[in-house]
Amino acid sequence: MLLDWLVWVLVSLVFYSLMPPLVKTAMREIPAYVSVTVTNGILFGLSFIVAKVNGYSFTEHLSLGRPSLMLYVAGVVLAVSVISYYNALAIGPISSVVPIWGMYIALSSLIGIIIMGERWTPAKGLGLVCALIAIFLLSR
Fold it and tell me: Residue 120 is part of which domain span?
């Protein structure tokens, strides 16, 4: 049975909230580049297993077409983001790094509205302002 999106996002929230403290603790002795390679290697392996167990064929879905190319570019963008994030965690306090990094949520929302034509509402605008204020306060 498939869980609805809210359950999935709540599971993600709980588990992703545990990641920065675990990584920060590990990086007291393990370099950021080693840490990012190990954690993302595990992510790759488990993602591959889940996809295969669910019957997905990579060759059936990937090509040189626009959707696949967008996915490949997203992979490069994600790699730069995650490597940068791990380096920031290695040298900065979690209480400042994570809130600033979390601004990707507001920025992604703006991109969705400005570039992808998603609906803008006053509530979304207020939410973005509140997010900026929260990040400012949390990162001090």
Answer: 102-140
